[in-house]
Amino acid sequence: MESLRWLIPLLAVVAIFVGGIRALLSLRRSEESLICTTCGAETDMPQSTARGSFAIEVVLWLALIIPGLLYSLWRQSTRRKVCPACGSATLILADTPDGRKRAEQLPKGKS
Ligand SMILES: [Zn+2]
Known about the structure:
Bound molecules: zinc ion
Distance between the termini: 51 Å
Number of domains: 2
C-alpha cells in the first residue's frame, strides 16, 4: 500500500484543520438564551449543523487539496444554530421583545 502512505498525514491535516475551525467557531458561541419559533423550546445551548456533506468534503480533499480546503471553509462558515428539540433553524434571541412575545404565545417546550 505504497500509495496510501501520503494519505495518513493528509487526513491528519484535514482533521486538525476542520477541528481547529470548529473550535474557533465554538469559542464565538453566544451564551444568550435562544427561543425556537417553531416549537417554543428555549435553549442556551443550540446545536449547530453544517451545510453540505462530509462525504463530499472527504472526496474533495482526497482529489484536490484546494477545493477541499474551500469546501471545508464554506461548510464551517455556514454552520447554523438549530433547535435541540425539533431541529429547526428558527432560533431567535429570547431576550428581545419578539423573543418574549414568542415565549408567551408558544407552549413551553420543557420536554
Ligand atoms: Zn424547536
